[in-house]
Amino acid sequence: MMSPHKKYGTDTIAVHGGRDPDAFHGVVNTPVYHASTFIFKSVEQLIETRRDRASGAFEQFTYGREGTPTTRALEDVVTQLEGGYRAVVASCGLGAIVASLTAFLSAGDHLLIIDSLYGPVRDFCESFLKRFGVEVTYFDPSLGADVAHLFQANTKVVYLESPCSLTFEMVDVPAIAKAAKARGITTIMDNTWASPFCFQPLKHGVDVSIHAATKYISGHSDLMLGIAVCTEEAFIPVKKTASGSGYCGGPDDVYMALRGLRTLPLRIKRHQETATLIAKWLQTRPEVARVMYPALPDDPGHAIWKRDFNGASGLFGAVLKPFSDQQLAAMLDNMDLFQMGYSWGGYESLIVPTWPATLRSAKPWTEPGPALRIHAGLEDPDDLIRDLERGFARLAGV
């Protein structure tokens, strides 16, 4: 077990955090616990665990839905990486988001949420939160501290992504978090793009940092899991809501996410290197109107990214010049390495067409050409570039 009295770098924490071989007969990896039931030796112990749960401490293991030693190990290491108080594992990224939002919102409250957000979260806001009496306002991601002008007396939560889904605008997270904190408003941020290694929202004033561990933390496209890292004040509301709503991670998914996390420092660096190479290459292509990747020096959000972030992931976007649907299909239908799939963060490269205009209301999307979302995997970068080059040749041939 790592000494709590020593300060370690993130790479070291990723390897040693959440591990206690002495507690498991010297086993290096925390074992996977398949458990619904925990046995109590006495009525006194059973009552004590009930008190623990009722108080919101959740230190003791009582029932599988609320976690096992494997769950606690994953929560602990991600908490250390993010500089949080404690974390809550949920069944998927959306589950962690929904649990966090509903922990702080009630009928009559107001949610201020970034306009360019993950589509299923917008669907949840429109289909569920509004139906249950929560007022929802979408705001332009470029507002920064000016978002305070949209605060209302009943505003309870500001929800962020940075960079934004599909369009990759950078958001001034510290400025927004500071403005929200001054009004007693909770800030929640989806930090999946950056992973715990490239950005730590809680260190910039955010109350809850969420990861779809399905993606970079897992790294292998074979599980569904979400994690919400909380401040001390936010932990009990999120934990109680997640537990009370039935959100929990499956034991094998938790174990595989914990195993995947051990190599994340190496993987995320390679993802960034490859993404940067491809993004710069795309900027030279006549078919491309612009590339959306904040790690590029000429990206509009580069200054914020450089100020706040420690690195970038492998996910970025590109806007093409106007082409027909048939041309786009000719390019994407026959890719060799870049496959089409609705996820990212795994070892494989992915590419999908996107339609940002259908997911905007505060600030219209006006680009005339089609857009692409690209995930740079761990393949040879030259092979990936050649795959794209062949795709552009097919596009031009239609």
TrEMBL record:
<keyword id="KW-0663">Pyridoxal phosphate</keyword>
<protein>
    <submittedName>
        <fullName>Cystathionine beta-lyase</fullName>
        <ecNumber>4.4.1.13</ecNumber>
    </submittedName>
</protein>
<dbReference type="InterPro" id="IPR006233">
    <property type="entry name" value="Cys_b_lyase_bac"/>
</dbReference>
<keyword id="KW-0456">Lyase</keyword>
<dbReference type="InterPro" id="IPR015424">
    <property type="entry name" value="PyrdxlP-dep_Trfase"/>
</dbReference>
<dbReference type="InterPro" id="IPR000277">
    <property type="entry name" value="Cys/Met-Metab_PyrdxlP-dep_enz"/>
</dbReference>
<comment type="similarity">
    <text>Belongs to the trans-sulfuration enzymes family.</text>
</comment>
<dbReference type="InterPro" id="IPR015422">
    <property type="entry name" value="PyrdxlP-dep_Trfase_small"/>
</dbReference>
<dbReference type="InterPro" id="IPR054542">
    <property type="entry name" value="Cys_met_metab_PP"/>
</dbReference>
<comment type="pathway">
    <text>Amino-acid biosynthesis; L-methionine biosynthesis via de novo pathway; L-homocysteine from L-cystathionine: step 1/1.</text>
</comment>
<dbReference type="Pfam" id="PF01053">
    <property type="entry name" value="Cys_Met_Meta_PP"/>
</dbReference>
<dbReference type="InterPro" id="IPR015421">
    <property type="entry name" value="PyrdxlP-dep_Trfase_major"/>
</dbReference>
<dbReference type="GO" id="GO:0047804">
    <property type="term" value="F:cysteine-S-conjugate beta-lyase activity"/>
</dbReference>
